[in-house]
Structure formats: C-alpha cells, structure tokens
Amino acid sequence: MKTETQPATGGQTSGKQPSGRTRTSGGPAFALAIILPPRFTPERVRNDRRYRTLDKYRFIVGFLALPLLFYAVFVISPFLQAIYYSFTDWAGGASANFVGGDNYVKMWNDEKFWDSLQSSLLLLVVVPLITLVLGIFFAYMITAGGRHRRGQAISGVAGSSIYKIVYFFPQVLSIALIAVVWQQVYSSRSGLLNGLLGSVGLEGLEQRWLGGDYKLALFSTMAVIAWSFVGFYVVLFSAAMGAIPKDVYEAALLDGAGRAATFFRVTLPLIWDTVRTGWVYMGIQALDAFAVVLIMVPPHALKVTPVYLYERFREGQFGYATAIGVVLLVLSMIFTLIVMRIGRRDQIEY
Amino acid sequence: MGTNSVNRRDVVKATAAGLLAVPALGSLTSCATGGDEDTKAEKGKKSAKNPLGVKENAALQAYIFNGGYDDKYARFVSDMYEKRYPKAEVDQKKTERIATQVQPRIIKGDPPDVVNNSGAEMMSISKLVKNKQVSDVTELLDAPSWDDPDVKVRDTLVPGVLEMGQFGTDACYQLNIAQTVYGIWYSDTMLRDRLETEYPKTWDDMLALCKKAKKKGVHGWTYPAGHPRYMFFSMYSMFGQAGGRKQLDAFDYLEPNAWKTDAVKQVFEAYEELLAKKYVLTGFDGKNAHIEAQTAWTKGKAVFIPDGSWVENEAKDTTPKNFEMRVGASPSFDKGDPMPFGTLYAPPGEPYIIPAKASNRQGGLEWMRMMYSKKAAVNLFREVSSMPVVKGAIDGMELPPGVKSAQQAVKAAGDNIVIAFFKEWYADLWRVDFDSVIGKFMNGETSVKEAMNAMQKAADRTAKDPDVTKIKKS
C-alpha cells in the first residue's frame, strides 16, 4: 500500500532556465511549434520560456488525447445526454419536448419511486457493512488468524490457501447464474433451504423466502449479494494485509498484543485505504442490485430503484426513466463523498 | 523528451481541461433521438398474384418471440414466403428479449420488417402507436386473402382481432394470430372419476366441490404465486358476470372508482373465501412458478388452475394420457348476474407489428397475409396447439382435448366473449400493479378492501400520469 509521496513541487520551477528573458514576438512560429518536433523548432522559439510549458502539455496531450476521447464519447457523453433527456418527455420517438423539471416533480410525488428507493437505500447501507465485515474477518483469518508457528510472526488458519480459493468461487460465476441458483435454493416448495430446515426438524423456520413477506425478500436479496461479493473482498483484503511488513506484526507481538489488539491496532489501520475503496465499490454494487433482483425476486415482492427505472424504460417513459437514473447517479456520488469523508485519516507509509 | 518533467498535477489539470471541453463535444455527437429521415421502403408492382406490391427480391427480416410457442410456426411462414418469392431471403431471428433487441433499432429508424411483440419484455404498444413507429395495416386487412381472392383478409379473422389493434383509432396497428382462451382449467377424469361431480356453474357449487376435494386430500385450487397475475385469468370474466360490460369498460377507460364497485368486491370476496378455507395449494413462488403449479396440477394435487390455453402445450410433458384436459368458464354468482355463466375471457393474442420504417414494409404485410392463410393457421395449431384467429381453419380436425374444450367454450360463450383492453393499453397496470396487489392478497397479507383500494390507487395513478398515453372510446 504505497501512498503517493511525490511532492507537488514539479520540476519545472527548479529546472535550469535558459537565459531567455527575451520576449519573442514570434506568434506564428510559436503556433507552428505546437506540431513541430523539438529538433525542427527554431532556436528562437525553443529558448522561449513558454516553450517549456508548451512542450510539456503537448507531451501530456499526446498520450491522453485518445483515452480521453474514448472516455468522452463512451462515458461522459451518455451521461450528459441522459441528463438532458431527464428534462424531456422523450418516449422513444423521433422527438423529445423539453418539459423542465416535470419529471423530477413527478418523481417527488411518485409513491412507487419512494418505495423502491427505500429498499435501495437499505441495501446501500446494510450490504456493504455485512460484506466488508465478513470480508475483513475472513481475510484476517486467512493471513493472520492462525496459531503462531515457529519462526513466523503471523500465519493463517489451517488450510487458508484452500479457503481463499473457495471464497472466490461465487465471483467466478456470472451474476445471472447466481440469481438463478439462489432462486432455486429459496424456492419454498422444492428449495434447498426449506428442505434443509425440514430435514433437521426445523419445519417451523421454513419460509416463503422470496414470494411472501416483503421484508423477507429484501433480506434474502441482501444475503445473496453479500454472498456473491464476499469472496472478492477476501482476496482484496488478503492482498492488502499481505503487503503489511511482517516486522510490524513482530513488534506488536513483542509488545504483547493479542490477536484482537493486533487486528484493531495494526491490521485495520494499515489497510484502511483499501477498506474505504471497497466500501465505495460495494455500496455502488448494492445500490444497483439490478440483475439479482430482476432475475431472482418475483416483481410483486420487492422493487429496487434500478428495476423500477428499467420498468419505466420498458413502458416507453424514457424521459422519466433517465430522470430516475440521474437521481441514482447523484445518490452514488453523495454516498461516495460521505464514505471518503468519514473515512479520512492520515495516510501511513510503510 | 528527456527535458520534460511531467508530474501528476499537470496531468490532472490537462485531464480536467479535456473533460471540460467535452460538453462541446457532446453536443456534436448525434443524440439518440436522431434518425428521423425517411427511409425508402422497397416496393414492387401490384398484381393479382401480388396484391400488396411486394418487391420480389427484397430481403425480409422477422423477429419472433422465443417463448412457449417457439418459432417453428413462424419459420413455416418464412418458408412459404421464400417459396413464393424465390429471390427474397427471409432472415428470421428469435429472441426472448424483444424490447432489448428491437427497440433500439426502431428508435434508430432501422427496424426489422415483422416483429412478434410478445413476452414479458415486449415493447409498450401504446407508446409505439403514439410515436408513429408502427404501420397501420389497414392495407393488409383490405387485401384479398391468401386462400380466396374474393374474400378480404379482415373477413377471414375472428371478431376481436381488429378491435385489439385499434387503440382508439380507426386504423389497425397490431395483428394477433392466436385466440387465447382463459379460464379455469381442470382434468375431466379427476372431476368425473375421483370426485364424482360436474364442473360447477355457480360459486357455491365451486366451494362445495372444493370441500369435497379437501376431504379426499386434494386441494381445490392452485396458482403460481410467483406470477400471481394468473388469478386474473379466472377473475376477469367474473368481474363481467357480476358487473356487466359497464364494469369492464370502467376498467378499460380508467374511470374513477372502477375498482371499488360492489361487483369487484363480490369477486374478491369469493376468492377470499377460497383462501380462508385453505382450498388453495400455495407455495410456488419462483420465476418458474407457473411450471411448478401446473405440474402439481397435472399430477392431481389440485383440481383447478386459472390459466390460458397455452397450458396444454406447456404442460404436455407432465400431463398423464387419461388426464382429459378441459377449460371451464368461471362460475357465476347467481342467476341475476348481468352476464350469464359461460361468459369467457378469450382475446386474440400473440401480437405482431409491422414497424413504420421497415425497409420492406410490403414484404412484412405479405408475410402476415401468409400467416393468415389456412395452411399457416393449421400449421400454427399443429405446432403449438393454440387456436388460430383464422375463421374455421381447424374445423373438422382431430383436436387435442384442451383445444377442443376451448373451442366449445368459445362457441358456448357466443356474444359473451370479453376482452380486457386495459391489460394491453396500460400494460403496467396489469403486469406490475395487479400482480403486486393480487400477490399480497393471495398471500393473505391484505384484505379485500385494501386490495380494492390499492388497485384503484394504481388505476388513478395511471390516469393521472402524463407519460402514459390514454386511449379514449372510439
């Protein structure tokens, strides 16, 4: 976990500046110099102090132009178009009328939107917590949770390398597959879950996991999303923990730190940056939850905002749907800002 | 470049400057609403053999919904087309996601020539009509039919096909090919041999029958809780029976308090009683709920299931040989009902559209003309055992029990065929709102009153929503 330590002084001010205090008037020559390689650039221009700036930015532009163009065309421009369409009544036809904030007013008064948002926000708050806590716990167990072996300050629990692979399995499956599999697991008549409960004599706990109670469907969805992402975070956090030098642990050990103290005083602070990044990423995944909910949950039991948005599209209410999309964008940004703020700490270098 | 010293700050600055320049760039890129320019439709010479003026060598593209019907029945028509126009090639594609595949192309102005707009992901037809993205097919309806040049296509079709394509206009934008019979499906063997009774004509008889079945360890009803809107298939004609056509019109035209009438209450209460007495086999709540529920039904765990006529084909693999599948019209409440027992919810279904900007629009119309030929109708029936909308196409044929009983039900209903237009016009009101209201109701989470209120609220919201195109009485 190297942090950026490069000082922002920049080389140009300290660099040797050629004598050129001379204010050359060469406008056209200067303009030409933008495309000319240095060796063909007239000496006069090359000695101009402004030429250094030009040369530098020309260099940056040279390697940024293409990726930026792609980014602009395929990422930024759809965003801007979506924002534009959110102020229209576009219905998929050839024309779209500007309707101002009508879509947003409609959204404000749309009970179904608020219902869906409630589920989505719950997912946003709860799922990252579950996933990250589990991920960190498993990762800690894998890297530092085991017995102390001779000659090693820390080691994972027995079989940790196998666990690491097993945890990652769900990440290999496509999300659609996960949703289909879990739908079968949750099935109240032929599902694995109810079958298991029944076979160990816990028939009383059998539930209609998806089609019945609204809260239960939300809970079931949370469990599936957390299950499918935990593996990724185990690997991410293991890598972060693996990067912590062993001598830090040795020092803690010498000071008499137990496993819990080591974790809270040493490991967690040192991987905090990764946790924060993971949190943002997981939050956005949870806010989305589109595929899992669309495929797995019967539509009458649970609606999340992205699915609601999708249904607006299906009904040809493109203007309204994009307005919902814009709100989702704003929500993800607010969420990211909050996480980045509350998680801010001094960076530790090691 | 050795003299260059580039640091992160400079790069960030340059990037930001670049991205700020993007809005200008964004306005340059064409927006998604583009594509308004007229595309030239291929046209050939009209003749007696080619009444629609199809260009003989123009390729044709058809998108078929890949659902319970598969697409073999459509391939038959495509083959007919290729045989009739040997120089034309028919590119037939099948997909489960019609909207995903076709909608972008319609918006872009480069649509296929024939689209089977069906399935859970069909495009909103009201919106397509409003945006003028579908063709008026009056030209086809007035053309001579495939089998008899003296008879117009429109006269070969059963009633309802035209009405369902009109959407409050004089034109016709949608062509349905199969008549779906909705109702209460059962096994005659079960009724006759195991329960020793007859199909109930009144709701009281229905309850008595369920009681009898319960004693024998069979549930009276089952339904797919994962798709609770299936309940509509048996409820709809009951709304008509209890409240008359006035009630059904009130649904269609989103009239205030349409869902709060005594008729609606009576129907909901009937089902509440069914639930309260635990006559309903529940628990099929995944996405495959309809298959699970149908399988339980064909295995004799429940007597009745609300379903559509596709069930015979869909449940083919699990249906025992001596099952004797039947469909019954929903029982009535009493003799004074505004519409009698036998009232049947039997709309033409499986819609096709010809996109307005189809490059081979005439070819698309011709393809549909072939679809409405006796030959294709018979083939459709053979492939999917659904009743084609072509009059008399399957008369005299040996019919499987379900279809036969469906046909009898249509005959028995006579003029009392009812069609839920609001289901087509305001797809969401049925597919999402009714689904969710009835889902909670059948779970026992909401009372009759709450369900009625929720449905009324949804209808009111639809009526008020400026994004939903309203269809008025024509």
From TrEMBL, chain B:
<keyword id="KW-0813">Transport</keyword>
<comment type="similarity">
    <text>Belongs to the bacterial solute-binding protein 1 family.</text>
</comment>
<dbReference type="InterPro" id="IPR006059">
    <property type="entry name" value="SBP"/>
</dbReference>
<dbReference type="InterPro" id="IPR022386">
    <property type="entry name" value="Chitin_NgcE"/>
</dbReference>
<keyword id="KW-0732">Signal</keyword>
<dbReference type="InterPro" id="IPR050490">
    <property type="entry name" value="Bact_solute-bd_prot1"/>
</dbReference>
<dbReference type="Pfam" id="PF01547">
    <property type="entry name" value="SBP_bac_1"/>
</dbReference>
<feature type="signal peptide">
    <location>
        <begin position="1"/>
        <end position="32"/>
    </location>
</feature>
<protein>
    <submittedName>
        <fullName>N-acetylglucosamine/diacetylchitobiose ABC transporter substrate-binding protein</fullName>
    </submittedName>
</protein>
<dbReference type="InterPro" id="IPR006311">
    <property type="entry name" value="TAT_signal"/>
</dbReference>
